[in-house]
Amino acid sequence: MVRTVADRTFLPAKAVLEEVGDMMILTGKTIVSALRPPYPYGGEFVSQFLFALRLCWFPLLVSTVAFGYGAPGLQAANFLVLFGALDRLGGFFVLASIREFAPFVVAIVLAGVAGTAITADLGARKIREELDALQVLGVDPVKNLVVPRFLALMVVTGLFDVYALLFGIFGGILATLVNGAPLGPFWATFFTNASVTDLWGSLVKCTLFGAIIAIVCCYKGMTASGGAAGVGRAVNQAVVIAFLGVFAFNYVFTQTLLATHPEITVIK
Amino acid sequence: MGWLAVPKDWISTFGEIAKFCGKIVGQVYGLRVFRFFGEALRQCGILILSSTLVIWGLVFIIGLQCGIEGAYFTRSVGAPAYSGVFAAWCDLRELVPYAFGYMMAAKVGTGIVAELGSMRISDEIDALEVMGINSVTFLCATRLLAAWMVLPFMYIAAIGAGFFASYLAVVQQIGDVSSGGFFLIFWMFQNPPDMLFSMMKAMVMATGIVLVGCYYGYNASGGPVGVGTATAKSMVLNIVFVHLIGMLGTQLFWGANPRAPIGG
């Protein structure tokens, strides 16, 4: 009786912990085999990079403009208009766009668009036993498949962060224009409040989001099993774990950045 | 002509999806789905058991995020007692619907695609048709009905999870404001219509996600690879859809009226 109850509670927890451990091991292997010569993954890296770029640019554009206009744009503008201080919207966008939503919208779109495509691709190869065939041929799947995706996703999320910043702020500009206010004060408060710490924090955070997404999606793809249903299930689990991982990491990172750099929270 | 092919393709896909969704919604509103009410209840059970905790989890993390940003922001303007304003608006109006939409798309949407897609690949859907069961009603309309029965309650609880997380972050973690002071401002800056609007946003997102999931799953083709590709494709559409609904909802519900207890 006690044993069944204990099994019911602890076996799922154990499975989760084992999976997290496996992902950590994959991360370690990926980093080691990325650094150790030879470097055969150049071509695959470029093709994955272009693949992610081609797939994500349009959903990301729509998402960041919509998010920037709706959440921080309209709501904050509404609040500031009540005090006649709409010029402060620029300062608020430093907090909203650079520190918060540009990185996480990039992560959501990359995980949902490029991450799912990676899992579907690797999962299909696993199901058709192509990964085993590669190993028989003496080709290391981690070095030739995971490393280029890991690096490409990290680079592409870092660069997309800048892109999301531009379009997120464009959403803020739209909100200012909708309220019939001039743009000069928006830019003035934006640039007085923006700091280099904010920007590098945003870029580092976003790059690490890319790493999380790549590892989760590659792991889930490479361990897919069970035919047609298995690949779909792998994609489903990959995107859920990637979202949870990204947001949990986001909370820890933002909290650490805000607590260790009090000067960036000062409103100028 | 090459570049025109892509938008043309999008428009025709969009039309197909709209047609298919119209069929499903028609089955639910035409009450034909109640022939399979048992299946709908089974889908409710699956939704509750497999998705609730994950959705609440993501909303909880987002609530923490709203809390710390609000606490640091209001501290920097010298009014830490007002972090409740930021938390209330950030949670209820914007990020809880978004977080709910993201997790619905990730967990429920792709789950439906994977499930229906593998049924299609292994010819189970054709088998249903052969047995004289209307597969759209049995598979898609029941799922939509299940979503409509379960999700409003799940969403209200999710708002609770977000509020609790913001409280933890602002009062217990950062601690610039007392519990009473936080709640005074927090409840002052929201009211039941706000919650209703927020819920409408989330329910439109959820309905769209379930319908898109059904479309891509039901029409999957091309073996195991096809199921994976269909799952990935549904996610693209769902993410764009969630963001657009988020923006349009904000514009519609709060665009012309801030609904804040300030001024006249």
From TrEMBL, chain A:
Membrane-crossing ranges are: 45-67, 104-124, 150-179, 199-222, 234-253
Source domain of life: Bacteria
Concerning InterPro entries, the annotation shows: Permease_MalE (IPR030802)
Q: Does the keyword Repeat apply?
A: no
Keywords, comma-separated and alphabetical: Membrane, Transmembrane, Transmembrane helix
**Pfam families in alphabetical order:** MlaE (PF02405)
Q: What is this protein called?
A: ABC transporter permease
Look up and give the organism this protein is from.
Paraconexibacter antarcticus
UniProtKB/TrEMBL annotation, chain B:
Query: Any idea which UniProt keywords this protein has?
Result: Membrane, Transmembrane, Transmembrane helix
The record, for InterPro entries, names:
Permease_MalE
From the Swiss-Prot or TrEMBL record, give the protein name: ABC transporter permease
Superkingdom per UniProt? Bacteria
> Transmembrane: present as a keyword of the record?
yes
Keyword Ligase listed: no
Could you read off the lineage of the organism from its UniProt record? Bacteria, Bacillati, Actinomycetota, Thermoleophilia, Solirubrobacterales
Positions the record marks as coiled coil are none
Q: Where are the transmembrane segments?
A: 40-64, 144-164, 196-218, 230-254
Q: Name the source organism.
A: Paraconexibacter antarcticus
